[in-house]
Structures are given as C-alpha cells and as structure tokens.
# Entry
Amino acid sequence: DHRASSVAPYAVLHLFVDRAHGLPAADLNGLSDPYVTAQINDMDLDVRTSTQNNTLAPRWSEHFELKVYRPESILTLFVHDEDFGHEDT
# Structure
C-alpha cells in the first residue's frame, strides 16, 4: 500500500463531486438518500460525500484530493443509498 510508505505519488487528482440527476428511487417513499464513495484500482479511498436526504437529484459540491501512484490508474465512483439499520446499496 503506497499510502503508508514514503513513495511520492505519481500525481494528485482533484476530484469535484458536483451533483447527480435521475437516480433511481431506493426508499419506500420514492426517493433516495444518496452519497458517493470512490476507488482507485479497486482499492477503497478515504472519499465519502455527505448524504443528501430524500432526493433523486442530489447536489454535493464537495472536493477531494486523491494521490495517484500508477500512471494507468482507474478511478471508479459509486453512488449509494444510505439506509439506517440496513446495509447501504
């Protein structure tokens, strides 16, 4: 894991998670409580937006700095629905 070592990153990626629209309803009320997480090369990152409650068109406007250690890295973003007492989807 490069994050724990003294190896300098190949690059620093500035990720801005702005908004989404047209999300599917995940809750019984016909809405969702979406938030976003990220991975680089299938490794979870310390990236999690705030939860936007009861919406299918969330606006986050959140910025993250990601250290990239390989030039051909793949960034994957996930939109989840937060459900208290259940595993997120």
About this structure: The mean pLDDT is 91. The longest strand covers residues 59-68.
